[in-house]
Amino acid sequence: MKLIGSRLTYANVMSSIAVFLVLGGATALAASKIGTSQIKSNAITTGKIKKEAVTTAKIKKDAVTGAKVKESSLGQVPSAANAANADNANAVGGMHLGKLHFVSGPNAPNTVIFSADGLTLLAECSGESLNFTGTTSVNDSEIYESGNYLSTYNGGFDDNFDVGDTEEIGNEIGDASQDEVQGQLVYSTPSGAQVTAEFYLNDFASYGGTANCSVQGTVVYS
After folding, report:
1. Do the beta carbons of residue 101 and residue 93 sit within 8 Å?
2. What whole-number distance in Å separates Cα of residue 54 and Cα of residue 92?
3. pLDDT tens-place string over residues 7-23
4. Which of 32, 37, 41, 173 could pair with 147 as two cysteines, CB 3.0-4.6 Å apart?
5. How far apart are CA 50 and CA 47, in angstroms?
6. β-strands 181-188, 141-149: how paired?
């Protein structure tokens, strides 16, 4: 102890203090000056980040874009849910709602205006006369139609409706003129597919004389 005390001078003490101040200051300076450009690529990994250290407030606005987000980690967004609901909006109990719409001048060719569950409905304006017919792609199907024109009511059916058959729907209802006729049909297949339709037919100066033939109605199908 006597030897150490004899060598411990004021100069030695001040030199030691200076060294500690320099080293401490350098460390503080380094800590305050290290920027992103001085960090080695991939040096900071997920495992080195303290849990919950990165909060929403610390993320730069617009820094996280769609391209940087794992798609499978996202749930269904509200707009997508609304779109899905829109697709199913017309489905109730497995049934869907559609419409019949055919408006034409004279000599319009045979046109498909509905096709589902094996049933195809077609409309044609031959000259100025409407032809409203149906075909099937399923053998042993059945189709029934009925309707009225003024006080005249009539109907028809085919309980052995096969591929290649053509059902003259319009000519089976009312007075067979298809002139301002209201009607309905029911179609079914052996597997249980069903189509029902409410419609009216007009081949007499439809819509104030702007069209010669028209079919309008609604269809419910599976």
Report:
1. no
2. 47
3. 556 666 566 665 555 55
4. 173
5. 8
6. antiparallel
